[in-house]
Design goal:
This protein has about 700 residues and is mostly beta strands. Among the domains are: about 320-385, no CATH class; about 395-495 and about 505-520, Methylamine Dehydrogenase, Chain H (7 Propeller), CATH 2.130.10; about 615-695, Macroglobulin (MG2) domain (Immunoglobulin-like, Sandwich), CATH 2.60.40.1930. Strands 1-56-55-54 form a 4-stranded antiparallel beta sheet, with no helix packed on it. Strands 2-3-4-5 form a 4-stranded antiparallel beta sheet, with no helix packed on it. It has a 4-stranded antiparallel beta sheet with strand order 6-7-8-9. The longest helix has 14 residues, at about 1-15. The chain starts with a helix and ends with a strand.
């Protein structure tokens, strides 16, 4: 009975474990892992876990904002014989379709182990590997094998396969180890000239042969006694991602040639302009015989005749490495990325890159003026107004350099620009003024940011020489030599409550009265990183800090840190922070955008970029209730909707709703006549969104 109570507690926690108030805008660009079952293909990548329905094509999304995943980067997937899906992000978790359980909760002895791979042998034992340990989990025991005690020849185990006799092959850092149930031994042969050291992947064929692909030396087959070399790659190309399909054909990924297949007689190099395949990570075959290829360009499907790139997201952002986001006066969303600019308006996406616009690619900064025009800093200065572009470069204007790092307006309406190599520039109508090291005391032409403080002073930050501000016409320099500035590389600068806050590559600096310094870093505060990327003042008492290891909030002298481990933040590196007029926080990260609503956020009346502003689950009424109550909710687009009732232990009591619904508001009745008095939970899922409510039944 005691064991039963422990399991119930674990299930209760994991069933409703998510990050309240968080949602995400990202797309799967990199696919690392694939698994299939009778209804779905499971896809693990850089934006969480996706379950693609093979019949409808619908995608269901799991990430660290709506599930217990502790990271959106999914490194491997494994489907065991009981139907559980094992998902490796930061930790390894078991998912049965409803409940999530972390490996360390199931087996506390494994707390702290970083699992690299797993497999189930013919006896249903689980085998797992870490860098230094091999782990076997059977029905009634757990055993750890390490190199010293068990004479294991190699370390850093990255892959496992099992044969029909129960033997296990382990891929080490340099070589291959076989365990026959009694001893570990290295598999090598003089005929291979040590070429099987650099193994990228391996697979067992139905006849028992082991197929191995390597980084530099091609493909090998091991028949139990002899090694046979099958492929010599071209120009040191890597071969990786082996899969043996139902017909026995072997499929491989090759860095230089894309996808290869071998039917035991001839090789085929699959090259087609219709697909984009880069480094191949995993291959799977579904119930219909389709082959799926996960790679650094996404997911590709081959049905035996044609190839197709699969769409893994409705989000049309150009690139997950988002640099900045704002909402303009019309409610249009602007997002800059390493590849260009995204605009989201009237439920439609537009993208601007070097291919379809004058933009040169990476967008550093952008700012809306009073007329509604958007000024964009990229490789040149761009003005965008109702689909019309105006371009300013060093060739047609007084711009001193084409790389624009920051854009600001002064109180007189002049446009100021910080450039990478030409100092700063002022645009006043058609007139240009340039300030650089050749005509002023500016400490560097490698400028990174601008600020006009409440006293009207101009501050200029640099990437290599600290910062400077104008005081009665003279430049005052602050750097690591003459002040407590922790680094001369300045990433951002803002003013809050008449004090200057400075984001540097070596901590956060606070400058008061132009001479009083306070420095916050990983040594004297709760900051986990000294690389401070961006700052955003919310009201007069809250400062948001984007770092390389999460986003921090300073309020009333206390600091709270949000990371992917304790929130729905999609990635550690936060490039920019933005708080919109409703109080919603937007965090542009190196792997998508995180959206956060706290207790100060106003309710939204319009659909937002994530399609969830109109996704809402209301408190049931009446509450408490006896015996019936009404549950109302709103969905923002046609999707498959489920509404389920759970008791306090996490047990599913009733599924009230399970069907496709159109966008709109809904109300359903729930009758609890046959239930005992107590607390119950109701969970609404629609597409990639989910919310949970609590209600009290009193007889």
């Amino acid at each position: 009975m005691k064991l039963l109570i422990i399991i119930v507690i674990l299930f209760t926690v994991n069933l409703f474990s998510q990050s309240p108030g968080w949602s995400q805008l990202s797309k799967t660009e990199l696919v690392f892992a694939l698994e299939t079952d009778s209804e779905s293909i499971w896809i693990g990548g850089d934006a969480g876990l996706i379950r693609k329905n093979l019949n409808t094509g619908e995608n269901k999304y799991y990430n660290n904002a709506n599930s217990p995943l502790d990271s959106n980067w999914i490194w491997f997937l494994y489907k065991d014989r009981t139907g559980n899906l094992w998902v490796k992000s930061n930790s390894l978790q078991r998912f049965d379709g409803v409940y999530w359980n972390e490996l360390a909760d199931l087996y506390p002895q494994l707390s702290g182990y970083k699992i690299n791979a797993m497999v189930q042998d013919i006896y249903s034992n689980y085998w797992l590997t870490s860098d230094t340990t091999i782990i076997r989990i059977s029905a009634d025991s757990l055993k750890l094998y390490n190199r010293t005690e068990h004479s294991i020849p190699l370390e850093h185990y990255r892959n496992i396969v099992t044969d029909s006799s129960g033997g296990i092959y382990f891929k080490g850092e340099v070589g291959l180890v076989y365990f026959d149930g009694n001893e570990f031994r290295t598999l090598s042969n003089d005929s291979t000239n040590n070429e099987i050291k650099y193994i990228t992947d391996m697979e067992i064929e139905n006849n028992g042969s082991l197929w191995v692909c390597t980084e530099y030396f091609g493909v090998f087959e091991f028949n139990g006694s002899d090694w046979i070399k099958h492929l010599e790659p071209q120009q040191d190309d890597f071969v990786y991602g082996i899969f043996i399909d139902e017909s026995g054909t072997k499929w491989f990924g090759n860095y230089g040639s894309g996808i290869l297949s071998f039917d035991d007689t001839s090789w085929i190099y699959w090259q087609t302009d219709s697909i984009a395949v880069s480094q191949l990570h995993d291959i799977a075959q579904d119930k219909n015989g389709n082959l799926w290829f996960g790679n650094t360009n996404g997911l590709v499907r081959f049905d035996g005749n044609s190839w197709r790139n699969e769409n893994l997201s409705d989000v049309k952002i150009l690139n997950n490495n988002c640099l900045k986001m704002i909402i303009d006066h019309d409610g249009t969303y602007w997002i800059s990325t390493f590849l260009g600019m995204n605009i989201f308006s009237d439920n439609e996406w537009s993208t601007y890159t070097y291919q379809n616009s004058p933009l040169g690619g990476l967008v550093y900064d952008f700012l809306e003026d009073d007329d509604g025009s958007m000024w964009i800093g990229s490789y040149g200065l761009y003005n965008y107004n109702e689909s019309n572009w105006m371009i300013y470069t060093t060739e047609n204007s007084g711009l001193p350099d084409n790389t624009i790092k920051d854009i600001k307006f002064s109180s007189d309406g002049s446009l100021w620009l910080a450039t990478r190599y030409g100092g700063i520039a002022k645009k006043d109508g058609d007139d240009w003024t340039v300030i650089n090291t050749s005509n002023s005391s500016l400490p560097s032409d490698n400028t990174s940011g601008l600020l006009f403080d409440s006293n009207g002073r101009l501050w200029v930050s640099t990437s290599d020489a600290g910062l400077a501000f104008l005081n009665n016409g003279d430049w005052v320099i602050k750097n690591t030599d003459n002040s407590s500035l922790p680094s001369n590389k300045i990433n951002d600068i803002i003013e809050m409550n008449s004090a200057i806050w400075i984001a540097t590559s070596n901590g956060l600096a606070l400058l008061e009265y132009t001479h009083l310094w306070t420095v916050y870093n990983s040594q004297n505060s709760d900051l986990q990183s000294d690389e401070i990327n961006s700052l955003y003042p919310e009201k007069d008492d809250i400062l948001w800090i984007g770092t390389d290891d999460g986003v921090a909030r300073i309020e009333n002298d206390s600091l709270v840190l949000f990371t992917p481990l304790n929130s729905g933040l999609p990635f550690n590196r936060v490039n920019n922070v933005y708080v919109d007029k409703w109080g919603v926080k937007w965090f542009s990260t190196a792997s998508g955008i995180g959206r956060y609503e706290d207790e100060n956020t106003l309710s939204l009346s319009e659909k937002d970029i994530l399609g969830i502003a109109n996704f809402d689950l209301h408190q049931n009424y009446p509450n408490p209730f006896n015996p019936s109550t009404k549950i109302s909710f709103s969905i923002c687009e046609r999707s498959y909707v489920t509404l389920m009732i759970y008791d306090i232990t996490g047990q599913l009591i009733e599924q009230i709703l399970s069907q496709y619904l159109n966008k709109g508001d809904y109300e359903v009745d729930f009758v609890a006549s046959n239930l005992s008095s107590g607390v119950y939970f109701y969970r609404l899922e629609s597409g990639k969104s989910a919310k949970v409510g609590k209600m009290l039944f009193l007889k």
